[in-house]
Amino acid sequence: MNTNHLNETKLESQKIFEGRILHVEKDKVQLEDGSQAFREVVRHSGGVCVLALTEQEEILFVRQFRYPHNTVTLEIPAGKLEAGENPEECGRRELLEECGCTAGEFTYLGKVFPTPAYCSEVIRIYLAKDLHYGRQSLDDDEFLDVEKIPFAEAVRLILADAVPDSKTQIAVLKYAVLKSGMQA
After folding, report:
1. Bridge partners (DSSP) listed for residue 124
2. Are strands 47-52 and 123-133 parallel, antiparallel or unpaired?
3. Region for residue 21 given its phi and psi (left: phi exceeds 0; alpha: psi -120 to 50; beta: otherwise)
4. pLDDT of residue 117
5. What is the model's pTM?
6. How far apart are CA 51 and CA 7, in angstroms?
7. What are the tens digits of pLDDT across the range 69-95?
8. Which residues, given as ranges, of the chain have pLDDT below 70?
9. What is the DSSP letter of 156?
10. CA nearest to 154, candidates 145, 163, 146
11. Domains of the chain, first to last
């Protein structure tokens, strides 16, 4: 299927904000019909999330406060990619930092665009098995609790709308489909 006609061409770009985690730009673009429009874009270096699975089919979750939503969320371990960092290395680092674990098996499950309408962030999803436990080493401004939740219970919580985090929903439900034997 040829979708080239859907492309938009950037004509100019204006930096609105440059922060530590994200940058905001306002771009002028040319549309396929020749008209022009503006796009506000949040630029983000991307991230990684890890579905860490114990031998007892439990998933390691973290509970942490999420300031934009003013609530404590239940999520799988995740973190921001540093400039030039390999996504798998980032996932392994975040699993160790947040849960104090290393994994003998680390499998790429795909990527997700969490908010493609206005944000450039890409989150890569990994499955970690053969876990070995050590010690957490959280960032100075990071506070979280680690919980093990049985796989079936995690699926139930997602379907009951108790886990609103998109990367966690996608990782758990994608693994559920793969576990069922259905292939792409």
Report:
1. 48, 111
2. parallel
3. alpha
4. 95
5. 0.92
6. 34
7. 999 999 999 999 998 999 999 999 999
8. 184
9. H
10. 163
11. 4-44 (no CATH), 47-179 (3.90.79.10)
DSSP annotation string for 110-132: EEE-SSTTTB---EEEEEEEEEE
Counting Cα atoms < 13 Å in the Cβ hemisphere of 70 gives: 0
Whole-number pLDDT of residue 184: 64
Two tokens, residue 177: 């489909």
CA distance 13 to 27: 4
Q: Which residues contact 94 (CB under 8 A, 6 or more apart)?
A: 48, 50, 77, 78, 79
First vs last C-alpha separation in the chain: 19
Task: Identify which of 101, 178, 98 has the alpha carbon closest to the alpha carbon of residue 144.
Answer: 98
CA distance 153 to 143: 24
The identity of residue 128, as a single letter, is A
Q: How many CB atoms lie within 10 A of CB 42?
A: 17
